[in-house]
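Contributing new records

If you add data, match the layout below exactly. Sequence lines come first and carry their own label; structure lines follow with theirs. Keep one chain per record. Anything else will be rejected by the validation script.
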Amino acid sequence: VLEHYVNHRHEVVVRRTQSWLEIEIRTDILFPSGVAKLSPDADTTLRSVAGILAPFPNPLRVEGYTDDKPINTSVFPSNWELSAARAASVARLFADNGVDPNRIGIMGWGQYRPAADNANEEGRNRNRRVLVVVLGDQQGPARFYSDADRAEPAVAQAAPASAPDAPAP
């Protein structure tokens, strides 16, 4: 099903590694510049991706990226906040469309992991993206699932008390 978007609309690029699947979604179809609210055009594509991912148990990591153009607004003081908010918008849409929210984590990388050169508009456009990483069944660390109730409690060990100084002879 993702092939339709990969081959015909070029909105989604799917890459497979040995341990996970990456689904890259072009941000220019998802968000207007400088905002994290999803555009109406993004809805169909994201709902389709959510429908494909919903039946599977694999943990998902939704990662947001930006170009290197500085942003400094009251809502987004840096590209980190913008990229994390964009990832959260996609994660929330997935959860609203059948993907178990217990499977989803978000990350904001800001401008620090570019896919292309930021020197021109084409490169900046490639850097504004959301990546959905579908982890293998064995790739999700226990912390990913927030299972603190099953974790062993950490016990702080007090440092041994030092012996009082002996009186000088």
